Amino acid sequence: MRALVTGGTGFIGSHLVEALLKKGYDVTCLVRQTSTLRWIEGLKVKLIYGDCAEKETLKGLIKGYDYIYHLAGVTKAISREVYFRENSLGTENIVNGAAEENPGLKKFVYLSSLAASGPSPDGIPLDENSPPNPVSDYGRSKLAGENAVLKNKDYLRIVIIRPPAVYGPRDRDIYFFFKSIKRGIIPLWGGERFLSLLYVDDLVEGIISAGESGEGIYYLSDGKIYSIDTVTGKIAESLGVRPLKIRIPESLLYIIALISEVLYKITGKPPLINREKIKEAVQKYWICNNQRAVRDFGFSPRVFLDDGIKRTADWYKDHCWL
After folding, report:
1. Would you say 169 and 118 are in contact if contact means Cβ atoms under 8 Å apart?
2. Is the distance from CB of 51 to CB of 61 less than 8 angstroms?
3. DSSP state of 164
4. pTM of the predicted model, to two decimals?
C-alpha cells in the first residue's frame, strides 16, 4: 500500500511514518524545502517537496496513492490569518487536489483536533453528535479544515480524527509542564480542570486503523478522564520531585501572553503561550468519548497515564531535554 503523509516531520507525523513503515506501507512524505527532517532521517521514505497552503506546488504530487494522511498544519501562531492559511486553506488545497487527481484513493485521513469541537460545556464527554463550538482561532481553523474535507465526501472516502491532548516522545507542548515541574513549580490557574489524553503510539495506531476500516468523524482518547492535578502529580512522580504549586491569576496569564507576543515580534518564533491558547487553557472540560472508534474499528488504547508519563519522562531524560 502506498501512503502519502503531510506533516510527517512533526511530533505526531514522525511517529505515524514509523508505524506505517513497520506495517509494510510504502511511505512518501510531502515536506517543505525548509522542513527539519530530524525525526525521519534515515527512514526508508521518499520525500517530495510542496506546500499545502500553496495550491500550485501540489499539482501532480497527489496521484497514485492508496492513502493520504493529512497532518500538516500549525498548533501555534500569532494571528488568525496564519491559522486559517495553514489549517484551513492548506487542507482545502490537498483534499481538493486528491479529489481531482486521485479518484481511486482508498481513504483521505485528516488529523483534526478536539479544539475543533471546543470544550464540553457541562462535563459530559463530547461525542460525534455534539455540536462543535470552538473557543479559539486554532479550533475554528481546524473546524474549517474539517468542513473542506467533508465537502468532498461524495468524491472521496474520508476520515476525520479529533484527538484530545496528545503526549509522548518528541512532544514540545506538554513538555512545558515537565520542564516547569522539574524546576520545582507546578503552574496552575482557575479551578479544577479535567481533560482526556492519548499517548502518541495509541493515536497513530488509531489513525491507521481508522484509515483502513473506518469512515467519518472519530474522537480518539484513552477512554479515561483526568484532573489536571492528577496529571501534574504523575509528572512530578516520574521526575522524583516534590514541586510547589503556584496558582496564577487569569489576568496575569493574559499579561504573560502579551509579553510572549511582543517577544515573538523580536525573535520570529511563535510563543507557546498567547492569548488564543489561554482561551483554551482556562476551559474546565476538554473531554471526549471514544466509543464510536471502539465500535467501528476496534480502537483499543494500550498506554495509560502512569506508563505514558513514565515513557515520556524517560525519553526527555535520555535526550537531555530535562
Report:
1. no
2. no
3. -
4. 0.94
Question: DSSP readout, 45-77?
Answer: -EEEE--TTSGGGGTTSSTT-SEEEE----S--
Enter the C-alpha cell of residue 29: 512524505
* Spatial distance between the Cα atoms of 148 and 271, rounded to a whole number of angstroms: 28
**Beta pairing, strands 197-199 & 185-188:** unpaired
**CA distance linking residue 40 with residue 292, whole number of Å:** 32
Within its chain, how far is the Cα of 35 from the centroid? Answer: 18
- Give residue for cell 486528491: 98
Asked if residues 220 and 117 have their Cβ atoms less than 8 Å apart, the reply is: no
57 contact partners, CB below 8 Å, separation of at least 6: 49, 50, 51
Query: Over the Cα atoms of the chain, what is R_g?
Result: 19
* Residue range 12-47, pLDDT digits in tens: 999 999 999 999 999 999 999 999 999 999 999 999
Question: Which residues, 6+ apart, have CB-to-CB distance to 88 below 8 Å?
Answer: 141, 144, 145, 148
Q: What is the pLDDT of residue 143?
A: 98
pLDDT digits (tens, 9 = 90+) for 93-145: 999 999 999 989 999 999 999 999 999 999 999 999 999 999 999 999 999 99
Closest CA to 313 of 182, 141, 118, 145: 182
